[in-house]
Fold each of these.
Amino acid sequence: MTLQLMTELLAGGAVLGGLYALMAFAFSLVLATTHVLNVAHGTFMVLGAALSTLLVREAHLPFVVSVALVFGTFLLAGWAFEEGLIRPLQGRPPVQVLVGSILVTFGVAITAEALLGYYWARAVEPQPIFAVELGLPSLRVGGVAISGPRALALVFSVVAVAVLHVLLTRTRLGQQARAVAQNRVGALVIGIQPSRVARTVLTVSVAAAGLAGTFYAVAVPLNPYEGLRLTMVAFTVAAAGGIGNLPGALWAGVGLGIAEVLTGYWAGAVWSPVTYLLVLFGALLARRGEAVRGLVR
Amino acid sequence: MRWAGLAVLLVVLVLAPRWLGRDLTTALLFTFLLVVLACNYDLVGGYLGLYNLGQASFFGLGAYTTFLLLRVPGLSSLGSGGAALAVLAGGLVAAGSAALVAYPLLRLREASFAVGSFGLLLFLRVLVDNLPGVTGGSHGLYVAAGHYLSLGTAYGLLLALAAGSVALNWLVERSRMGLAMLAIRESEAAAAAVGINRFRVQQMAFVLGALPTGLAGGVFGLHTGYIDVSVVLGIERSLLPVIAAMLGGTGSLWGPVVGSVMLRAIDVGLKNYLQLPVPSPAVYGLVLTLIALRMPRGIVAHLGRGRVQGREAARAAPVVQAEEVS
């Protein structure tokens, strides 16, 4: 393997890994602050990809406009999702919230992807593929070629992770979210309302998922039934990096992205899912579930 | 009285194919299949409170073992005896792998357990998909004409498995092991304090819940004559038992049965009579969401809230709370 090929594989893995880190972080922030394991997280990404495909490819809107529309739509969707499906769970004991949220959001994921796949196949194209084609030229950085769309996806995930980092560490809301994640009762004592924090965090995470899906579709095409896989990847990265841990998610995400690309190169693309599943089992067993459980007391 | 009623029901179900058409007999067959999976799932999901989202793994292992064994010339030449042996072996392989998989999986709890069990199913799917030399990959496997099970035979076998699964749950519920399972579900610490070996009990429940599922996989495969990843390892196949058990009432003897019948009735009604332009997974998902949100104890307990009390109500759903204090 030449040095150049190696670098290109690493760059491809980094692009994927940046997106993984972003989606894992939004996913695990929700888990940490609200004890909700949102199985539909990946489905929201797929829905984001579908909506932007619709706006860019079918409605011929400029990409920037469609990104803004996706963001607005998913803020609303996230709010409605929290209001209608997550809020009713909140009175239960933490473990019941966790388990109940898995079942509720699993149902949402199955329903949404079945409807999306079915009606997209009827109304738009028989073989649904969500891809946002922007016609960007590829970039050459020091002899290494990176395709333009992938570079855009990488830039987006870096910016989005940075924005989330600032939100979490520099704003009052972020402080409150971290306080709730660390100690729910303590947060209540000093006058934080966990339910309000939960609503905001869930809304932001759904919006982040919608945008992550958009840029995922810029880099790699998606099909309607990949939502559960994406959620599992998000869970894997979150479990490996530590729930609610941004630097951890970043390292784990990029590591997994690179490992997946390398596995795909050496063993064939069909084997790349094995990578994240093995990392998942490793992380679950190494932490004995403490990654999740530690926060659900 | 109750026994007489059950006996009558069983006789009616045995004789039913004589009066019903092919379509309704097939609908009943699918109901029995779901009853097997839902009861088996509930042994772990309800009585132990461990949400196993990978029940289909055992179903797929049973089906693939049966099909692969029937490719061995010595066994396939035995005719229906060979097929019976292959199905039995499928059940044993499913049970054996449940015993093995229990070692890593039972270290996990709650969400980690659910995700881990689902991950194992996905792992099995990747393996089956990517080893076409053994499993036929995406082309699937066909059974030789001589081993094909007619609708009547498959109906009888699946009815027997469904009745057996209900009986198994009944026996477990009334045994020392059943008591130990409920004790573990309510508080692992307290169960350990009275000398219950948590791992052994949970592993046993896992194995018992995998055996009929594996057998059903073989029987169902031989009846359809064709298996592939989506037929026997589909995510829907793994989730439907969970939904059926939740719908009827998880952790109760008849809950999974009631739930399976309702779910199948909804499906048949949608497809054959209403002909709504809605894919069935969407309906299943909706049912799961509504049940988990509105009546987590299931429809039986929900409707009879006033009547069902005491022991039955305590069984109706896991009440994991003592854990949190620790």
Amino acid sequence: MGLGTMNFLSPFAFAFAAAIPVVIVFYLLKRKRVVKLTSSTVLWRNFLAETQASRPFQKLRHNWLLVLQLLLLALAILALARPYFPGETRGSRLRVVILDASASMQSTDAKPSRFEKARAEALRWVDSLRDLDQMVVLLAGAHTVVKQSATSNKPALRRALELCAVTDSPTRLGEALRLAETLIKNQADAEIHLFSDGATPSLAEFENKNLPLVYHRVGERCRNLGLVAMEVRANPENAAQRAVFASVYNPMTNAQSAELELQFDGQTVEARSVTVPPTNTLPVLFLAAQSRDGLFTLRLNTPDDLAADNQVSIVSLLPQPVKVLLVTRGNRFLEKALRGAPQVELSVASSLAAPATGFDIVVLDDVTPAVWPAANLLAIHTQPTNWFGPLANVEVPPIVDWKSAHPLLRYVGFDNVQVREALAVKTPAWGMALVETPRTPLIIAGEVDHRRVIWLGFDTLQSTWPLRISYPIFMANAMEWLNPANVNAALLAVKTAEPFRLVMAEPPAAAQVIRPDGQVASLILPPKTTEIVYGDTTRQGIYTLKAGTNRVVFCVNLMDAAESANAPRPEIALGKYATAAANTRQRANLEIWRWIAAAALLVLMFEWWYYHRRTV
Amino acid sequence: MADQLLNPDLLRRLEQFQLLARRRSKSTAKGERRSRARGQSVEFADYRPYVAGDDLRYLDWNLFGRLERLFLKLYEEERELPVRIFLDASESMAFGEPRKFDFARQVAAAIGYVALCGFDRVSVIPFPEHPEEAAWRGGLRAVRGRKSAREFFARLSQLAAGGPAIFNEALRRGALEARQTGPAVVLSDFLDPAGYEPGLNALVGRGFQISAVQILAPEELTPTTYGDLRLVDAETGDLREVTFGRYRLKAYQQTVANYCQRLREFCRARGISFFSVNSETPLEQLLLKQLRQAEVWA
């Protein structure tokens, strides 16, 4: 059996070897003697004989050098004994360290920042590991990254921690905890150490898991104002203007004032002083003329702890007329509603034989096209599709629920809408049921094959809906939601850590992304792909994508109220009843021999200094 | 020349002193000292019966009148006192500020002057012997009479310190050479590596009345050079490596005190008058106080 490669658990202890040349230098210094002519050395000979050891033992006299050397020896022996403060567990242990890398960890209430402080504390935990203890390092941003798998190699752990970087993304501790839970499964003595400020969405799924979670809280206070929403729309009252909606969130318990500045392509459009009530969100509306496609940026000038949420940018494209093809056997309600929608150029046909390439939106009203159009689609009571499984009919389905938060159902209600008959389907994976009855969804919206589709499961003429005010509003919402320009504009604003996607007409030869910090990332594209996906959006700011001749600017924003509320939580709630309280006590076998050895080194230095000082 | 060694005021005061001899002079030369010899003086000593050939002038006729026997009156013979001064002129005496040798020469001059004023014979024996000085060193031997003082001082001033002291050898030879014993003064730092005991013992054994004056330099009592030192003996070339600092000064001074104390005890045990002085010590203090208190002179 061959011997394995020798490893060192504390290789940095070799740094003490740096003291060796120092000692040698001291010895070199000592050897230099001054030659002096003297009348007689008789007295000196006697002096040396009396002061040096003429007998094997002499009376022990008080000598600071002796005291220092004894102290040095004691420290060295103590260090060799490798003392530690006793812990509560024995044997090999597993520690899973989760480092929260969300935006709120950038808060500077803990110097230099919460993240740096958390990292420093985690590094101290590495120092406290015993030889056989293992540690895993997880970095929890929007996605959890395993920075270091289980190992007892302290330099590797330290390196992994040092390579961790904070992001602008919201906290997703659930994913990290799920991974940690898997890692500690079947481990007798394992602990999860979470270094975080506790700003996290619900972790109810861990309520009954009895996780050995130790929460190390970082952060001291809440002092922040944040932009949590921004949207640019056409001003309904003045088509030449754009309305910029924004929300400023104040998580503090006292009202805060700040200056809010709107810029268009770097030029200040308007600056306004706002006062946000305590623990409240203040909606702000700016009206600005826009003559070209450009970039609206909102900046909050306030000296708070968290700078990541003080700026939001959105790409705003000028509204373009949308070409809509209505394929119907005749529906005056629908036609009128569509014509009433803004920016719509409506064409009407009774059947569809060609792919309808010239149109942005195709509305199929109870017809089945011979050729399915490639454009975005509003399909009303269109039966033979491959979007669903087998279809059935349901009579007079009562509407029980609708998702009024969805942009399609903005200002749309179904309180007094009755439907005579509807197709019964199961909600497909690609879509979302917006209006539901007990047996079937009535309206489904989603994305199929890179195009948006709204599917209505009933004939509107067989319902009371066209007579209601919600009908034209829904159609206007639908035209806006299906408008490819709006779709693209929506794609140009992504939240941090969410991927940016862009569908090109032709597969690009090469693509590059210029990040907010100026770094250029070249994308490796699969051959013949027309969709570019860029996922490294953990830092907010303005990104530029260059693909072939195309140049697309997109914005990555945090806009997360949970992150803006950067108060460090005293405990992390795991569901309703379970919590993990912030831990201030370190349960670890802290080896201190290095400190003792360092002290011994200092004593040695002091001894030499003292010795030389006395001889001069 | 005399001014360089001793100032006139001190000379004047020294003229009043006379060396005290504990024993009667054994010299054969006439002088002013009482001796065991019978001779011609005014001091009556004894009677002895007349034998044929005696000088009839010394018969005591009054006694003859009473006893009808002839007795001769004997008088004490007054003879000179031979004073020997052993002067250490080795290299080690050239050290110190003021130089130990200068101090020693002054003491030798003072003792010599006192002896000359008392019509005693003074011999200065510098050691080691320098061949180049041999020609005129004779001028320091057997000097008599006050009128010789000027030349005596001049010769002393010409002496130079150098070479290794062979202390014991010099004293032993001095003891053997002396035909008559008398007061002997040893002026040295007593720092010969071979020790001082055989030399002093030789003098004591010959019957000298010895005064030992140890002269040390201030630098030897309180060294002012600190650090890691390599000390070179000026006489022998002996090397000593010493790490010395203020913290060891007391220990060093204790060593010096021990050394002097051993010398003092050695001297006391042999009836030697011992004086230990610093070359900075005012000359008057040694001459007018210490030597007087020790009854070297009065």
